[in-house]
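ugh ok fine here u go
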Amino acid sequence: QLQLVESGGGLVQPGGSLRLSCQASGFTLDYYAVGWFRQAPGTPGKEREGVACIGSSSGRTYYADSVQGRFTISRDYAKNTVYLQMNSLKPEDTAVYYCAAKFSARASTRSSDYDYWGQGTQVTVSS
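structure:
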């Protein structure tokens, strides 16, 4: 069974940091581009926002303007895991964060491009 499992979410104060993990089971992420997306509260009908993504073989990364310089996406092939390091967090970063994978070398921040999704992990930035 192909599965993505996110972890690492939680409550953090503004300016704090969190690291999210996305571990795959049932398949290897080596040939998949992986993206992190988020759904802000009160926006169920809105398309999930692409936050960061990383290509498969190239490891090339892309970031949304809103997180550029604060978030870093990386992957550990040995652990079959992709990470999202989030620093200098702001209240507007509060959302459910999802990881997704697509069988392609090229990453994308468009949610409709992705085939497999995790269940999401809540990130709340509040004092």
